[in-house]
Structure to design on (331 residues):
């Protein structure tokens, strides 16, 4: 395991080398996804990890690990296709530019892996996957609230970068309404999104998959970069199992003095991330401390052996559970 050079995370001067070009929306840039992911900065996906050990593993995990197991390959591929179908439909229409048809039925086979290596930058899919993505897109557009949010004036796939509190951060929302009132993210799930049971199951999924952390991270940094505080963050969730169906779940962006903010999922997520005081240990601090110690070890001439890395990036578990939806429990 070879860790990245963490020095660049802490250099404000790196701002002169930001990828892409300024976008029409203040505080954002137009950046290719690969360049965004490669740029060294904290992001929500990284900070979903529960310990320093997990953070380091995430950073060192090769992209091919998305496809290491058939279940992972399937979930990653379907999620990417649905995202494209809802937000970047031209990629589906012009699929030969962005995808290659798999020569085998399974995405996790050795033959599939060889095909990926022969087609870098393209998503390996089957015809059935494209059909499923179109069916899931129809389910999203049949849901009235989701259709309204996707029709309202907005921008998709812009990237934000900010040097804040001594470290670089980045975020890439699926969609931001041009009036700045709402951020939107499209998610696929196996959860049945029907009735009260669907609400509870989805909220458990949000804690399990780190979706509340993602929403808190995006809301905070959007306001930091633009000066505009969004009213809410909406998940457009679509069930990948048949019958396909979609539902919107909204996390209200309450101010800290709002009576429903204390004890809410948003508050707990912000505290866990280190965007607000209240957690015993926050994820930003966990990363920052381990990264700075790693920099110091390299500068002192120490070899970053597996044993030293296990010491610097300890596997300490932290609490990640929270209340069900975004509201505090009733007394």
């Amino acid at each position: 395991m070879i860790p990245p050079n963490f020095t660049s995370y802490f250099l404000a001067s790196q701002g002169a080398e930001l990828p892409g070009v300024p976008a029409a929306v203040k505080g954002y840039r137009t950046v290719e996804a690969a360049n965004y992911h490669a740029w060294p900065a904290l992001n929500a996906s990284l900070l979903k990890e529960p310990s320093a050990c997990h953070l380091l593993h995430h950073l060192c995990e090769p992209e091919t690990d998305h496809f290491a197991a058939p279940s992972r390959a399937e979930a990653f591929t379907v999620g990417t296709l649905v995202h494209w179908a809802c937000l970047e439909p031209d990629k589906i229409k012009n699929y030969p530019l962005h995808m290659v048809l798999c020569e085998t039925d399974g995405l996790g086979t050795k033959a599939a892996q060889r095909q990926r290596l022969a087609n870098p930058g393209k998503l390996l899919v089957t015809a059935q996957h494209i059909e499923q993505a179109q069916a899931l897109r129809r389910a999203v557009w049949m849901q009235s609230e989701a259709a309204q949010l996707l029709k309202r004036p907005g921008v998709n796939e812009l990237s934000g970068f900010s040097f804040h509190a001594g470290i670089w951060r980045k975020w890439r929302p699926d969609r931001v309404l041009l009036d700045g009132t709402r951020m939107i993210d499209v998610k696929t799930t196996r959860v049945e999104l029907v009735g009260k049971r669907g609400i509870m199951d989805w909220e458990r999924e949000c804690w399990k998959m780190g979706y509340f952390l993602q929403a808190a991270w995006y809301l905070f940094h959007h306001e930091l970069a633009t000066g505009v505080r969004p009213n809410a963050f909406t998940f457009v969730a679509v069930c990948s199992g048949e019958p396909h169906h979609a539902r919107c779940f909204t996390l209200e962006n309450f101010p800290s003095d709002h009576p429903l903010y204390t004890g809410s999922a948003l508050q707990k997520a912000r505290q866990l991330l280190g965007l607000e005081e209240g957690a015993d240990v926050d994820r930003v601090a966990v990363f920052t401390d381990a990264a700075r110690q790693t920099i110091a070890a390299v500068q002192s001439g120490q070899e970053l052996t597996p044993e030293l890395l296990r010491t610097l990036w300890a596997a300490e578990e932290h609490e990640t559970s929270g209340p069900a939806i975004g509201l505090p429990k009733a007394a």
In short: DSSP finds 14 helices and eleven strands in the chain. The first strand starts at residue 21 and ends at 22. The chain has a mean pLDDT of 90. The CA atoms of residues 171 and 308 lie 31 Å apart.
